[in-house]
Amino acid sequence: MDFLTNIFLVYSFIAFYFMFLFILIYIQNRKKINWTPKAKKKYGVGVVIPCYKEGKTIGKVIDSFLNNGYDKIEKIVVVDDCSPDNSFEIAKKYEKKYPGLVFAYQTPKNTGCAAGSKNYGAQFIDSEIIVYGDADSFPEKGAIEKALGFFDEKNVAAVTSNVLVKNRTNVLLMLQAVEYIIIKFTRKLLEFVGSIYVTPGPLAMYRKSIFDKIGGFDDKNITEDIEITWRILSHGYDVKMSVPSKVYAESPETFRAWFQQRIRWNLGGIQCIFKYAKSFGRKGMLGAFVLPFFVFSWLLGVFGLFILLYRAIRTIIVRFLLTSYSVEAHTAILRLNDINFNPSILAYIGIVLLTLSVTYSLIALFTVKERKEYKRPTVFTFIIYEFFYLLMYPIVLVTSGYKYLRGDIRWFK
């Protein structure tokens, strides 16, 4: 076998391994996906909402927390990171309207990242549980209370939520709606093997004592929600996910904004890989699963792109040369015996992988329950997602790797 065939077989083996692993985890735990424990006590909760240029949404986000239905929210802290718009003025109006409950602060200078304003806000919270939200994300009523039961386990340091797309007004947004559902499904499956690798910013909860103990967010990492989760795991603590705790986030509406967001996500992921590289094979599930999963997922995406490009370019060149030769030699360009109706074993492997991927995505879509006012993805959207949207990811990965090597690591917003 040639080198490329060996690479493809290794690629296929790793892909099969992870696909079958997730399917087996689902089969074993399918009845537990939407389950959350009922809290045995009333936890005091303090909310921090970092804000930058969110004057259009910050007031509505504060309202969504005020009306969340949990009566032990002790404080809501809005931290404006020196926005050039009226975000801080709106937050101050809410502070006056709800004295002793809503507090508006502004960082001394722009921190340039979410971690900076998040850490600034943490100093004003002394509740047992600190909850972080985004200034453009809206938690569903009851989202906080549904998640708190996990904290009855003393080793649980963080609980993440079910992040879904709020704005679904064009094809790109509908594709992201499919993506978020599948990400949610995968994240919950990872919980069953103790390997949740991120607590996304739209709604994340931390035990304040542990949050302070490990030093809060890393303001050098542009995906602070990934990094703090890895740090939690490295200290031996657990992370859970509350699927019924839904939060609807405003997602990028243009391709440029989408691409920049995905670049940031992957750049931050690469930062985490190198920061925690010495934990490979150590530090519990961080080294045993999360790190290998991240690395292999990245490699699969990159090698998949290069294999696809190589095959496509090679086929085009061979066909061009054969056609040119046939024209010059006055011979048939295509003969019946050149047509092969017996696909190779590599083609069979590709078809099986594609079938498993589609099946996995369909299972994820059918497990989620959303409010009726949110448009459900259509069959057309799903097809575009599986056969076109996912092809963009290897390009994002390669671009992220190139930017990392150049040292071009910036926060895109």
Describe the model.
The protein is of the alpha/beta class. It has a domain at 33-254: Spore Coat Polysaccharide Biosynthesis Protein SpsA, Chain A. Helices cover 51% and strands 13% of the residues. The chain has 13 helices and 8 strands. It has helices spanning 3-29, 58-66, 87-97, 114-122, 143-147, 171-191, 208-213, 224-234, 255-275, 285-329, 345-367, 379-387, 392-406; strands at 45-51, 73-80, 102-106, 129-133, 137-139, 156-165, 203-207, 238-249. An 8-stranded mixed β-sheet has the order 3-2-1-4-7-6-8-5, with helices on both faces. Strand 2 (73-80), helix 3 (87-97) and strand 3 (102-106) form a beta-alpha-beta unit. It is globular. The two termini are 47 Å apart.
Which helices and strands appear, and what pairs or packs with what?
Blueprint: H1 3-29, E1 45-51, H2 58-66, E2 73-80, H3 87-97, E3 102-106, H4 114-122, E4 129-133, E5 137-139, H5 143-147, E6 156-165, H6 171-191, E7 203-207, H7 208-213, H8 224-234, E8 238-249, H9 255-275, H10 285-329, H11 345-367, H12 379-387, H13 392-406
Parallel strand pairs: 1-2, 1-4, 2-3, 6-8
Antiparallel strand pairs: 4-7, 5-8, 6-7
Helix pairs in contact: 1-10, 1-11, 6-11, 6-12, 9-13, 10-13
